[in-house]
Amino acid sequence: MSDVQVTCINKQPRDSTHEGITHLGGSSWHWTRKQVIDSIEAKTNTFFTKVSGNRGDIGVVNGPNGKYLRTYADGKWNDNLLALPECTG
Q: What are the phi and psi torsion angles at 76 (to 5°)?
């Protein structure tokens, strides 16, 4: 199992607080949200963010509209993923 840092996201529309993340990426990868969810659930990889030097582990949440990704840091769920820049290229 690899521990993978997420450094960027794609979200449509970018400034909406209600629309979901479509893709996540890092230094050499760019996956759909479903691929990341499937990898976490299969225990193939773990994913995390670093915002202001603080690590936030990414987990899968079963919400009323389906599964989505959220970070968990300092003992609580938070929105660190939304603080990441847009993936390009």
A: -150, 155
Q: Is the peptide bond before 64 cis (omega within 30 degrees of 0)?
A: no
Q: Show the DSSP H helices in 4-88 as ranges.
A: 33-41
Kindly provide the b/e burial profile for residues 43-79, where b requires at least 16 CB atoms within 10 angstroms of the residue's own CB: eebebbbebeeeebebebeeeeeeeebbbbbeeeebe
Q: What is the mean pLDDT of each run of 10 residues along the chain (89 residues)?
A: 93 66 93 96 95 87 88 78 86
Contacts 24+ apart (CB under 8 A), 37-40: 37/67, 37/69, 40/69
- Rounded CA gap, 38 and 74, in Å? 25
Query: Tokens for 73?
Result: 């840091």
pLDDT value, residue 40: 97
